[in-house]
Write a structure and sequence with these properties.
Largest sheet: 3 strands, parallel
Number of helices: 5
Number of domains: 1
CATH architecture: Orthogonal Bundle
CATH class: Mainly Alpha
Helix content: 40-55%
Mean pLDDT: 79
Low-confidence stretches: none
Shape: globular
Order of helices and strands: EHEHHHHEEE
Distance between the termini: 38 Å
Strand content: 15-25%
Length: about 120
């Protein structure tokens, strides 16, 4: 059985990300790491929500269900303007939430996006 592609997204202080990296390094050295965890962290919630908008989540879901697709085909499936879909795809691609195939088509590699927002530090 193939495991789902999973990414953790959240707001995290840079020092916590460094601590998690060190923990993973130690686990890898001792052979205790089963599957790599992938994290995408933003410095604050405003930045996270500016990248992960409802339209962009819909874009990723459509790509996951129907991809790989060209920007034009994706815009048609979403019934959205090409220019806006192109801009949204560029923003998502810049943080690796979507990627391009060797043929230049867009794909969403994640089955699950786990988003965490801590209310208390």
């Amino acid at each position: 059985m193939m495991s789902k592609q999973h990414i953790h997204i959240g707001v995290e202080d840079a020092s916590r990300g460094f601590d998690r990296f060190v923990e993973a390094w130690h686990k890898a050295e001792t052979g205790k790491i089963e599957q790599a965890e992938i994290h995408l962290n933003f410095e604050d919630f405003a930045m996270l929500s500016s990248v992960l908008t409802p339209k962009r989540l819909e874009l990723m879901k459509t790509l996951r269900q129907h991809g790989p697709l060209s920007v034009r085909a994706l815009a048609k499936k979403l019934d959205r303007d090409y220019k806006n879909v192109h801009a949204d795809a560029g923003a998502l691609e810049s943080v690796d939430l979507i990627q391009r195939t060797d043929e230049g088509l867009l794909v969403a590699p994640w089955d699950v996006i786990d988003a965490h927002v801590r209310l208390v530090a």
